[in-house]
Amino acid sequence: MTEELFATDAYLRSFEAEIAEVDRDGGRVALARTAFYPGGGGQPHDLGSLDWGGGPVAVTKVKREAGTIWHWVDTPELPGGGTGLAGEIDWSRRHLLMRTHTALHVLCGVVWSEFAIPVTGGNMEPGAGRLDFPLESISAELGKRLETRINEELAAARSVVVEFLGRDAADATRR
Ligand SMILES: [Zn+2]
Questions:
Q1: Residue 9 shares a structural domain with residue 85
Q2: pLDDT digits (tens, 9 = 90+) for 111-164
Q3: Same domain, yes or no, for 29 and 85?
Q4: Going by C-beta distance under 8 Å and a sequence separation of 6 or more, which residues neighbour residue 116?
Q5: DSSP β-bridge partners for residue 73
Q6: Cα of 43 to ligand 1 centre, how many Å?
Q7: Which of 6, 56, 85, 160 has the fewest CB neighbours in a 10 Å radius?
Q8: What's the CA-to-centroid distance between 32 and ligand 1, angstroms?
Q9: Could you tell me if 9 and 71 lie in one domain?
């Protein structure tokens, strides 16, 4: 199990860790702990670099597999297990993804409060995103109304709060 530093500190840009597992054929390493977001909830995985003493090596892909977070690294010379390293997140990209993700949640909240219609799909890239709502129709007026409502909610400068729910509690609040 990788300790998921990003889950408790979304603003962590750099960290130190040891290599927990090396997959030489896959060109990837797992760390004891990481600030690299592996993707999820529509948000893409982070990019950045790992440095185990020879200078920064690009992280090209990050993915969670059964509790282990793998980092694909752009080098043929992988270090051994137990090696200490420094990780650095591509912060301008990640921060823009965080802002995009939060903005999409505001859109979800506004559509829910106006129409009681849940989001059914979506995706995002830095600075742009798409959400699907099963609305009966859409119009320029509706777009304008949603934009106005979203801007009202943003102007209210509400806190963004992180909470952890158990599986049962998460399912219980679903509709
Ligand atoms: Zn989300």
A1: yes
A2: 999 999 999 999 999 999 999 999 999 999 999 999 999 999 999 999 988 888
A3: yes
A4: none
A5: 59
A6: 8
A7: 160
A8: 25
A9: yes
78 vs 52: CA distance, rounded Å: 10
Cα 154 to ligand 1 centre (Å):
16
Residue 158 shares a structural domain with residue 103: yes
How remote is the CA of residue 159 from the centroid of ligand 1, in Å? 15
CA of 46 to the centre of ligand 1 (A): 15
CA of 104 from ligand 1 middle (Å) equals: 8
- With cut-offs at 50, 70 and 90, classify the pLDDT of residue 1: very high
Percent of the chain clearing pLDDT 90 (strictly above): 89
What single-letter DSSP state applies at residue 40?
A: B
Q: Could you tell me the distance, in angstroms and rounded to a whole number, from the CA of residue 124 to the centre of ligand 1?
A: 11
d(CA 130, ligand 1 centre) in Å: 12
Q: Are residues 144 and 160 in the same domain?
A: yes
Same domain, 55 and 115: no
Total structural domains in the chain? 2
Give the per-residue pLDDT at 78. 95
pLDDT at 175 over 80: no
Please report where in the chains the tokens 């060109």 appear, as a residue. Answer: 27
Domain range for 163: 95-172
Q: Residue 45 belongs to a domain with what CATH number?
A: 2.40.30.130
Q: Are 38 and 15 in contact (CB under 8 A)?
A: no
Nearest by Cα to 10 from 125, 89, 72? 89
